Amino acid sequence: MTFIRAYLRASTKEQDAGRARGDLEAFCRERGLTIAATYEENESGASLHRPELFRLLRDSKPGDILLTEQVDRLSRLSDKDWDQLKREIKDREVKVVALDLPTSHMMMKTEDAFTGRMFDAINGMLLDMLAAIARKDYDDRRRRQAQGIAKAKAEGRMKGRPEDGERNEAILNMLQRGQSWNSIVSATGCSRSTLAKIAKRLPNQSMALEQSEA
User: Fold this and answer.
1) Is the pTM of this model over 0.70?
2) How many CB atoms lie within 10 A of CB 192?
3) Which of 3, 6, 128, 202 could form a disulfide with 38 if both were Cys (CB 3.0 to 4.6 A apart)?
4) Cβ neighbours of residue 142 under 8 Å, at least 6 residues apart?
5) Residue 94 contacts by C-beta under 8 Å, 6 or more apart in sequence?
6) What does the alpha-carbon distance between residue 131 and residue 79 come to, in Å, rounded to a whole number?
């Protein structure tokens, strides 16, 4: 018996991974089919760390369908990671159907083995193409973000995180009282690099202390 397993993913906790649930259910209802199980998670599409996706694959039997809204819900992976995921899908003989890939819809019902193999080959090729496009879109957006940040910094529009004045004043007091760097880091949670910057504000603060406790 073939089961349809819906996979829903969003990148962050603030996004609703279940947003597309209605679309997937309507898609199946129009074809007289029912979703047997739903797997929902908030993980980056660029990461292979997808506990729910791999649980779906472990639960699947040969011929089961992995149904998702868009190919980029399944993959914004690097070539290496996409190849690994594809091998897992192929080894488990799972069919991938995406709402934004019309040729994959034919995988829901195939009349014979030859037709099934033919559509599987076509679907695999188009999945590769859309996965590559999704990855390129991901890389392009990250590059534009990095360029925007660099430009903002160069123009002085990005100053970094505001200083925690209250904490840093407490750190200065601890340094003046002669507390060790290790105890200050433990008490305040600041990094040693931050502590080194604050210590420079005290003209008589010996950097040898930091070196001796490193």
Assistant:
1) no
2) 15
3) 6
4) none
5) 57, 60, 62, 63, 64, 65, 66
6) 9
What angle separates helix 181-188 from helix 192-199, to the nearest 10 degrees?
Answer: 120
| Residue located via tokens 């123009």 | 155
Estimate the crossing angle of helix 79-91 against helix 113-154, to 10 degrees. 150
DSSP 166-204: HHHHHHHHHHHTT--HHHHHHHH---HHHHHHHHTTSTT
Residue 120 one-letter amino acid? D
Could you read off the pLDDT of 75-114 as tens digits, one per residue?
A: 889 999 999 999 999 999 999 999 988 888 887 776 666 5
List Cα–Cα distances, 144 to 132, 135, 138, 149, in angstroms.
18, 14, 10, 9
Joined together, the tokens standing for residue 102 give: 């019309």
Task: Give the DSSP per-residue string, 43-93.
Answer: --TT-S--HHHHHHHHH--TT-EEEES-HHHH----HHHHHHHHHHHHHTT
CB within 8 A of 29, min separation 6: which ones? none
Nearest-CA neighbor of 175 among 200, 156, 141?
A: 200
